[in-house]
Amino acid sequence: MKTLPGPGFEELLHPHTGDLADIRPTSHGSESAFTGMVDSAQGAFFVKAVPNRPGGRRDSLVREGLVNPYVQPLSPPVRWRAEEDRWLVLGFEVIDGRACDFTPGSPDLPVIVDIISRIGALPLPGIAHDWAETRWNRYADDRDAELFRGDTLLYTDIHENNLLIGERGTWAVDWAWPTRGAAFIDPALLVVQLIAAGHDAEAAEEWASGCPAWRAADPSAVSAFAAATLRMWRERVERNPDPAWMKAMLLATQEWADHRGIAVG
Fold first, then answer.
1. pLDDT digits (tens, 9 = 90+) for 228-245
2. How far does Cα 176 stand from its chain's mean position?
């Protein structure tokens, strides 16, 4: 059995799990100190844990726990929450699914579009009223940033490892930073991921057009968002030029901006 992340961690889980039989950390979930499957006397759980100190990682896990009742059954339910001075932990119901394939020709593409559309149809819960989406605002002028405002519950963490397909359903997992904003933002983020997976920009937008929020969007708002997204990835790659996946995202956003005829300074 692999080691848990720190002293007192197993004791914190014990009231919810009983004795642990096996621990299988995942290779994803870099925003958490620990993510993994835990087999125990009380069953199997998917566990996410962060250090219990103020800041983005704790705030993100708190928000994920708060939004969870409102995003089921698209997301697996939180079965328990544990907290002490050192750790904040959520224990999720285990689901049996595989990562989606975003590449051209994938049979998963209609399912992916359906998941994004279903997310876009979720009612905005009251707890999300103050979760205004602002991450793109600094990369746009005030007039364009206004176009990103809205009252749709946004997922914003769209990539192949977070959209899962199984025999019993499909899920969007890792609601690490849900926000309130313009409905077209999630389909727009899907466009970027599809381009990064090998689609040309026209084909990626064609797939996004399967989402009602994309079809209803003001094209000028989408273009403003594409420009802001390109500026965002330029800055990120300039600060951290080594990760290949970040360079891929920059290339994807540049291709998207070129396709929309946007000259981004």
1. 999 999 999 999 999 999
2. 6
